[in-house]
Amino acid sequence: MKDTPINYEIVKAKIAESKIQNIGKATIREVKKLINNIETETGQRFIRMEMGVPGLPAAKIGVEAEIQALKDGCAAVYPEIDGLPELKTEMTRFAKLFLDIEIFPENCIPTVGSMQGGYATFMTVNRMYKEKDTILFIDPCFPVHKQQQIIIGNKFDAFDVYEFRGDKLKDKLESYLKKGNISGIMYSNPNNPSWICFTEKELRVIAEMADKYNAVVIEDLAYFGMDFRKNYSRPGVPPYQPSVAKYTDNYILLISGSKVFSYAGQRIGMMVISPKLFNTQAPDLKRYYTADIFGYAMIFGTIYALSAGTAFSVQYAMTAMLKAANEGKFDFVEEVKEYGEKAKIMKKMFLDNGFKIVYDMDEDEPIADGFYFTFSYPGFTGEQLLEELIYYGISAISLAITGSSRVEGMRACVSLVDRNQFPDLEYRLKKFHEQHPVS
Predict the structure, then answer these.
(1) Is the dihedral of CA 345, 349, 354, 358 positive or negative?
(2) Residues of CATH 3.40.640.10 domain(s) within the chain?
(3) How far apart are CA 386 and CA 31, in angstroms?
C-alpha cells in the first residue's frame, strides 16, 4: 500500500466505482462527484480546486433587496422578458461607469446566469446568416461553452492563444475568419481557466478582425474587474475594465453576478448587446424567428423560449447591487480581492515543491493572482497528474478539457480553499514532491 495522505486503496476503489474511463478527461462535475465520494468514505477533507464557484458570502445589499422584493409580492408575478426597467437602467449606467461605453437600456437583458446568456447568444448569432454557421473559440475556455455548442447542434472551431499573443494574434484569427463561416468569436477576459488577460493591443486586433469579416465578438466578463493588478472599482474613473467594446460596435458582453457579486445561487447574469448589433437586420433570422432584427429575435425568440425571463426577485437584488456600485457606495472589487491574495500564497506553495505555472505571462507582464491559476509537474501530463494528486487529497481539472494545447497542465480554482487548509496543502504538496523527485 502506498504511503499517501489519503488511503490509497479507498481512492483506487472509488475511482473504479466511478466508471469514469479516463479521470484526466472527466468533466468538472464528474470530478466533483468522485471527490465527494472519497471524502465521505475516508472522512478526510480534500483541497478542493476543481469547481470554479464563489467561496465568499453573497453581497448583503443584494440579499436584503431580494428579501424585500419577495415580501412585496414579486413571486406571484411574471417578470418582463427583457428585464426589470430599473435593472436595465442600472446596467446601462454600470456599462458607462465601469466600461466607459455608451449603450441604452434596451440593449441590456438579464439572464439566468451567464450560462444562459451564452447559450442564447450562441443560438441566435449562429442563425443570423446562412453561410456563417461556426463559433470560433479563443482557447483555453470554459468547457461547458463547447458543450452548449454540441447540445444546440452548432459547429465550432478553436485554437489555443498561448503561442499567439500580441502581434501573432492577427494572422492566427484571420486564418480562420477568411474561410467565411465564422459567425462569432468567443473568449473570456480574465480567462477561465488560464487567468490570462488580453492586452489593449490584442483587444484592438480582435475588434479589427471581427469588423473585417463581420463576426460578432462574444466577450465573457464573468470575472469583471478581477485583474487585481489595476483598480477597476471606481465608478467613472479610469482605468476601466478592458473590453473589446471600446474598439468595435459588433459585440455581446456577458457579465456574471456569480463571481464578482458572489451571487451565484440565484442565477443572475447580464447580457449587453451593442446598439448597432441590437438593431441589425438579418433576413436569415426569419428561418427561426418571427422578426429579422437581432435584438428582437434574441429577446422574444431565444430568451422567451428558454425561460420566459429571469427570476423576478433576483432582478431586484442585481438592481440594488449595481445601483450601489454605480453610486460609489459598494466597492465590489474590494470584496473579492481575497481570491488574489489566496492565489499568491498557494502558487508559491506549488512552486516551492517542484511545480510550474503553465500560463504565466500576459505578453511581457506576469499574469495577475486571481480566481484561477494553472500548474504542471515535470514528467506528468495533466491527465496523469490529476489522477495522481487525488491520492494526495488535492483536486483540480486537467487543461485537456478546456481546449488548451498545454496538455501537461491543470487548472486550480482558489475560491473553495480555506486559509485554514493551507498547512494541509503545503504538507500534501511536500509529500508529493518527496515521492516524485525531479531529476
Answers:
(1) negative
(2) 76-326
(3) 10
The strand pairing partners of 179, in sequence order, are: none
Judge whether residue 1 has pLDDT over 60. Answer: no
Long-range interactions of 36-43: CB distance < 8 A, separation 24+: 38/6, 38/10, 38/11, 38/14, 38/390, 41/10, 41/14, 42/6, 42/7, 42/10
State how far the Cα of 125 lies from the Cα of 110, in Å rounded to an integer.
Answer: 18
Which residues in the chain are classed under CATH 3.90.1150.100?
A: 8-56+335-435
232-280 per-position pLDDT tens digit: 999 999 999 999 999 999 999 999 999 999 999 999 999 999 999 999 9
Beta bridge partner(s), residue 269: 111, 256
Rounded CA-CA distance 130/134 in Å is 10
Name the CATH topology of 76-326.
Aspartate Aminotransferase; domain 2 (3.40.640)
Q: How are beta strands 410-413 and 372-376 bridged, if at all?
A: antiparallel
Name the residue among 309, 355, 313, 418 with its Cα closest to residue 83.
309
3-class DSSP assignment, residue 428: helix
CATH number of 8-56+335-435: 3.90.1150.100
C-alpha cell at 223: 470575472
Distance CA 152, CA 122 (A): 8
Amino acid at 308: A
In the chain, the amino acid numbered 303 is I
What stretches of 140-255 show up as alpha helix (H) in DSSP?
143-152, 168-177, 200-212
Q: Residues of the chain with pLDDT > 90: what percent?
A: 96
Q: Give the CA count within 13 Å in the CB-facing half-sphere of 345.
A: 15
Q: Cα–Cα distance between 421 and 45 in angstroms, integer?
A: 9
Residue length of the chain: 439
